[in-house]
Specification:
340 residues, 71% helix
Length: 340
Amino acid sequence: MNIVAVAVAFVVGTAVVLLATPQVIRLSHRLGLYDRIDHGKSHRGLKPRLGGVAMFVGAVLAMAAGLLIEGRYTFVKAVISGVGFGLVFVVSLWDDIRGRPWWLRLIVQAIGATAFALVTVRPFVWFSVPFFGTFSPGLWSYPIAVLWLMMTTNALNLIDGTDGLAAGIAAIAGTVLLVSAWKNGLMGPAMLAAVTVGVCVGFLPYNLPPARIFMGDAGATLLGFTLGASSYTGGGKNVGFMSLLIPILVLAVPLSDVVGAIVRRSSRGDSIFEADQRHIHHVLLATGLGPRRTLILLYSVTAVLGATGLVLAGGPRNVVLLVAVSVGLGALFLMRSRGA
């Protein structure tokens, strides 16, 4: 495993987003491109919504830098995978600017996820599940991968309803997935997770409450897609049950939120794509926790679940401790900030 390539991907992603986001803020103000206030949002006032542009540029340059150093990822594979990411980003950015129908976004997400799955998914991975034995899904790996990518893509998008939430959860989840991929000796998923973490770290200074800019659908779907891709391809050739639990546990907050939204809206006879204010963060804000304490709680839950998954899968205890200390320091910073 080339630790230099992974480190470079993280550093480039962080640096590019840190430098590019102020430029995007100025551009958004100049063009008058502000976030739409709807029933799924908890903020007030006008905020730029094109943060996803800076995040995408950072992700592309970070992955390119890492691949140049690593040098083992084939050009064709990289191009096709990039097309998958690019399609999802373009339609999401279009939605941020003009507003697009939900069915168009889903179709493009499915195409992008399929392109990525075709060049990265191993169809004959063996899974070991207690009481059920060992099995391989075979060609079913491809539709399973597409559905998983679409689920994570939309889960991060739905939970992006309060300042700093999606980026913070994605940073924690990406760190856990990076450790898991590193443990299994998988360069591609590890680098992709490092890119995700770097992009989030670079964006959070501008997105923590009170946010100066939002990532929009373009940024949220990018994070969901990269996390889904890293987690699905990061288990190795022979995947144990505990390794399967890692992405499910670390992404439990956004995944449970999207499942809850589907069940809740379907039971009322509403469209599952109709926004409401009954997501996890909305419920917590309604109890009077405040935006920063809501972040602390959901960050902590994500970190604890992710660390639990790593421990169950035999991950290094020192890294688990590092995750816990990092979240603790972040919680202290947020608690000492004004308006917690």
